[in-house]
Design brief:
Elements (H helix, E strand, L loop, with lengths): L1 H38 L3 E10 L2 E2 L5 E6 L4 H8 L2 E4 L2 E5 L2 E2 L6 E7 L18 E8 L2
Length: 137
C-alpha cells in the first residue's frame, strides 16, 4: 500500500511538471509569434505639409517612415508641435486657429478630404497628408 501511495505521488508530480513545462513552452511560443508580427509590419513612406491661407508654409514639407496601421493624427504629432483642445487641433507649430475669422485646421490626403477624423484614417504607402488652416466655406 505504501508503495502504491509513493507511486501515485511520483506520477502526480511528473504530470504537474509536464503541464508546467508545456505552459512555459506555449508562453514562449506566443511571445515569439508576437515578436515576429511586430517585425513583419510593413513600413510605409508618408509625406506631410502645412498650408495657411492657401500657401504652403516654408520648411513644413516632410517625409517619414511609419509602420502600417499609423493614423494621420500620429503622423502629424510625430512631425509637428500639436496642441489639442476637446479632441480638436487648435495649433500646429504655433499657428493657431482663429475662431472669429472662421479658420480651423483641416486635412487632406492625396488632395481629397476624407470623411473620417484624423484619429481614424490609416495612412497608406505614398500618401501625401496636407494640413491646412483656412476659413470654412
Amino acid at each position: 500500500m505504501k508503495i502504491l501511495k509513493v507511486g501515485f505521488i511520483v506520477l502526480t508530480a511528473l504530470s504537474l511538471a509536464a503541464c508546467g513545462d508545456r505552459s512555459a513552452k506555449e508562453t514562449a511560443s506566443s511571445e515569439q509569434s508576437s515578436l515576429v508580427e511586430n517585425q513583419t509590419k510593413e513600413m510605409l513612406t508618408v509625406g506631410s505639409s502645412l498650408e495657411k491661407d492657401g500657401k504652403e508654409v516654408d520648411g513644413t514639407s516632410k517625409k517619414m517612415e511609419v509602420e502600417e496601421g499609423t493614423t494621420v493624427l500620429e503622423v502629424l504629432k510625430d512631425q509637428y508641435e500639436v496642441v489639442e483642445e476637446g479632441g480638436f487641433i487648435v495649433s500646429i507649430d504655433g499657428m493657431k486657429q482663429d475662431e472669429e475669422a472662421g479658420k480651423y485646421w483641416m486635412y487632406e490626403v492625396n488632395d481629397k478630404q476624407p470623411t473620417v477624423g484624423a484619429t481614424e484614417y490609416l495612412v497608406k504607402d505614398g500618401d501625401q497628408v496636407k494640413w491646412f488652416l483656412n476659413a470654412l466655406q
